[in-house]
Design goal:
The structure is a single chain. Helices cover about 30% and strands about 15% of the residues. The longest helix is centred in the middle third of the chain and has 34 residues, at about 245-275. By secondary structure, the protein is of the alpha+beta class. The strands form five sheets. Strands 1, 7, 10, 11 and 12 form a five-stranded mixed beta sheet that branches. It has a five-stranded mixed beta sheet with strand order 5-4-3-2-6, covered by helices on one side. A hairpin with an 8-residue loop joins strand 8 and strand 9. Helix 6 (about 190-200) packs across helix 8 (about 245-275). The protein has a single domain, classed as Alkaline Phosphatase, subunit A, CATH 3.40.720.
Length: about 500
Amino acid sequence: MGFSDIGCYGSEIPTPNLDRLAAGGLRFTQFYNTGRCCPTRASLLTGLYSHQTGIGHMMEDRGEPFPGYRGRLNDSCVTMAEVLRPAGYFTIMTGKWHVGQQAGVVPWKRGFDRTLTAPAGGFYQPTSPRAQVFLNGEEIPAGDPRLPAHWYSTDLWTDFGIKFIDEARAAQKPFFLYLAHNAPHFPLQAPAEDIARFRGKYRQGWDKLREDRYARQKQLGLIDPAWAMSPRTETIKLWATLSAQEKDRFDQIMAVYAACVYRMDLAIGRLVAALRERGVLENTLILFMSDNGGNAESGPNGRTEGDPTQATSIWYCGESWANLENTPFRRYKHFNHEGGISTPLIAHWPAGIPAKGEFRSQPGHLIDVMATVVDVAGARYPDTFDGHAILPREGRSLVPAFRDQPIQRDALYWEHEGNAAVRVGDWKLVRFGRGGAWELYNLKTDRTELHNLAASDPARAAELKAKWDAWAQRAHVTPEPGTDGGQAKAKKKKKAE
């Protein structure tokens, strides 16, 4: 989901429930993910950089020479559930897992008391060949009476989250719920009535709508007006040059995408209402974020196979609409420019966050969520767990930022598929692809990364690169599969054996 895809971050998509959470809490303007789903979930759950957990890429196991690329959570990390359960919490997960179930790493063995989960992505409906769902560790076949006869994943994850919260309250325990929505991940699928709500609203095209989002972001105070919006890339056509048939097709694609986001917002509204009805909303910390920026996979034309109201369809929004979703930033999911890694973060906690409707510009990252949860819950992050040494957490608590105080840290780091970045203060060094040149930006004056200062400030660029190199060695980013150094190390080990 792109940085600008919800109303309180500039979108035309109505998200009144998320907007109310933002109005009653805080919006972070410089919060980061890892640019891809699996690494993001690994970092979020553990408070470590994803390579340290074994998920530097996706689910492929690259073998022992590459500990950062084993495709599953390793034994050197703990999940938030494993930290909170010893502190007396009832731990719950519903939604997308995607951190190693193919290798036997499952949520019910990583600290969660109650689970309704899918191993990976997709909108799961009972007729889908991808519809593999597990209830408390048991695979649920199609037609099982424990699930509704006709269900949509966005609603299903929410309904069972509320059900499990009631179990926690019956046990008289505080609860931790990790609700991992699929929306709006591909394949984009939504109920017909939700798609119809948006049909025709995107005939204005991505050029006009992007300008509108950018204007709203400035009006809201979300971005500095001095940051110029990144330009439309050459691969994306000028909307005015499209035929009527092309415009209609693209309108339908974005209507489906908007429907996914809209339905997710409705589900979040039901969850918040359930918390309020049970008298626990005031003292519940809610954090909302996304796992990566808008997705350009399938190229500028997107992909439209089958009926998007049916489980067997395959729809992607494509690059042309992803450029809108990431307003005002450059690039997309996979990449470490701001369009790939910038995420909304809403923090709502009436009993703990007195500020209402304010922004927080302190840079934060998914690695900070573990530290925040430990801080708020009074839990203890362990040195060892289940006989294994646990890596020290990498993140910092966001609680000072809740009080509008600084978050003390040295740097933030990224790497995915050779794309890489490091941020220190307002300075960011970023690389597009493994062989790309390093680019240097001052994010205070140029958050949209349009003015590369690497040539004019080579000393700073070299200093930041040295930091990234040291982190890459420490965090098992290098050697990485496919590089000469990594292959040489693998061959040397095999020869020695």
